[in-house]
Design a protein that fits this description.
Blueprint lengths: L13 E3 L15 E3 L9 H10 L26
Antiparallel strand pairs: 1-2
Length: 79
């Protein structure tokens, strides 16, 4: 079963569009993209210390779907 949901974000250094139907003739169909960016790691220990210091305030907010079309019982702000 696929664990990816609408609104999920995935981070990768390499990706390829595998367009087989709606966008199969688009210029980007089957195009691969790669990043050679080197992730700076010199301040990871500082970041970890700050995260730990504020861990009690770092909670994931309740999130509803991005549109009314995908309401699934969530209440849209202002409705």
């Amino acid at each position: 079963m696929d664990q990816t949901n609408l609104g999920d974000v995935m981070v990768t250094r390499t990706a390829q569009f595998r367009c087989r139907s709606e966008f199969k003739d688009a210029p980007f169909a089957n195009t691969a993209y790669h990043s050679d960016f080197v992730i700076p790691t010199g301040q990871i220990s500082d970041a970890a210390a700050l995260i730990q210091l504020h861990a009690a305030q770092l909670t994931e907010p309740a999130m509803g779907p991005p549109t009314v079309r995908y309401s699934h019982g969530a209440v849209e702000p202002g409705l």
